[in-house]
From TrEMBL:
Biological classification of the source: Eukaryota, Metazoa, Spiralia, Lophotrochozoa, Mollusca
Species of provenance: Candidula unifasciata
SUPFAM superfamilies assigned: L domain-like (SSF52058)
Signal found in the keyword field: yes
Keywords assigned by UniProt, alphabetized: Leucine-rich repeat, Repeat, Signal
Protein name in the entry: Uncharacterized protein
Length: 330
């Protein structure tokens, strides 16, 4: 009991010390709000980086500049020692080479949405521990091989959405540590057979939705660690290259051109004891796949298919929610 009370007292003192430190740490930008470890410069109508009072920083770790009109990030405009920076909805078109230098060895997470750079900025060459990069709705076309070579090995998550990209990037070979990869809303139609080799044993989530794939690429068949595959909103009719040495938990295939339920049944057999979700609505299936043995699946949606044969295939025994929506009576 005594020890417990002592522990409580210690906790209280820690809190007071921590609060004291928090209050003592001045917000590095007068215009922004700082709270806990966060620097928040969102929605201030900024057209340039806010005026910084000092780059010296041992306290704040997260800086957000979301929903402004910032176009340029000059050197010395960011506090040092940050771990996360986000520039969501800013038309950033230029960054000085030393823009991130104070955080070269601390910055792990970087988010851009609506960036206006055509080439990935060389400032990224100075980031040594970047593990999360997200770039959406950008005009970027030149992914700057030198940059990808530099950050590729430390990236765990790479998320690219709604950019113009119509062939599989060769710089993917440098991404040897990815657990999560998403390239969505591009117009990629295929992956070279060796195009995923750098990540076949690390990637757990692969999302290539809203592209132009007509089949699951053969490169995918080599994946061993993948748990989630997202190929929704493509033009896929052939799934025979689904990975046979992986334990998929979830697969999203809605919005494709799947027609061959027998091929699908065979391709997903290796996941019979792990798969808990499969999304198949909005395809061209005329018959049901064999899902009877998939005991972890409890929801199925077959709406917007062309199902005509109610006696085909099978549904899991544990199913609690079945959506048909076809002109089928079962
Ligand atoms: C950015 O600038 C444009 C043009 O001046 C303006 O219409 C828009 O509201 C601004 N956006 C923000 C988030 O300040
Ligand atoms: C960054 O943090 C370290 C350790 O907390 C500190 O010693 C250093 O002065 C900080 N750098 C700057 C420029 O604030
Ligand atoms: C790979 O990622 C892990 C964390 O998932 C990290 O600990 C390791 O340092 C990374 N490797 C490199 C070379 O950055
Ligand atoms: C699909 O990608 C296009 C760009 O290629 C984009 O305009 C559209 O919003 C995306 N759709 C969805 C649902 O994300």
């Amino acid at each position: 009991m005594k020890r417990f009370r002592f522990g409580g007292m210690f906790f209280l003192i820690s809190c007071i010390l921590w609060l004291g430190r928090a209050l003592a740490a001045d917000c590095p930008y007068k215009q922004c709000t700082c709270s806990l470890q966060n620097i928040m410069c969102n929605e201030l109508g900024l057209t340039a980086m806010p005026q910084i009072t000092t780059v010296v920083n041992t306290y704040f770790t997260i800086a957000q500049f979301d929903i402004n009109n910032i176009t340029t990030v000059p050197g010395g405009s960011l506090p040092a020692n940050l771990s996360q920076i986000s520039f969501i909805r800013n038309p950033i078109s230029f960054m000085d080479l030393d823009a991130f230098d104070g955080s070269a060895n601390t910055l792990t997470t970087l988010t851009f949405f609506g960036a206006n750079f055509y080439t990935l900025p060389d400032a990224f060459l100075h980031l040594n521990v970047l593990s999360w990069l997200e770039i959406s709705e950008s005009i970027v076309k030149d992914w700057n091989d030198n940059v990808m070579k530099h950050i590729g090995a430390s990236l765990n998550t790479l998320s690219i959405e709604n950019v113009e990209m119509n062939t599989w990037p060769s710089w993917m070979q440098y991404c040897t540590n990815l657990t999560d990869l998403g390239i969505s809303g591009a117009s990629i139609g295929d992956i070279p057979d060796n195009g995923l080799d750098s990540l076949v044993n690390t990637a757990q989530n692969l999302e290539l939705s809203n592209n132009s794939f007509t089949k699951i690429p053969k490169a995918v068949s080599k994946m061993t660690a993948v748990k989630f595959l997202g190929f929704q909103a493509n033009k896929i009719s052939d799934v025979s290259w689904l990975p046979q040495n992986a334990k998929l938990e979830s697969i999203s295939l809605f919005g494709n051109r799947l027609q061959d339920s027998k091929q699908l049944s065979t391709a997903i057999l290796p996941y019979v004891s792990t798969l808990n979700g499969i999304e198949l609505h909005t395809n061209l299936l005329t018959s049901f796949p064999d899902l009877g043995a998939f005991t972890l699946i409890n929801e199925l949606d077959f709406r917007r298919n062309k199902l005509i044969d109610p006696n085909s295939g099978s549904v899991p025994t544990g199913l609690v929610d079945l959506k048909l929506g076809n002109k089928l009576r079962v």
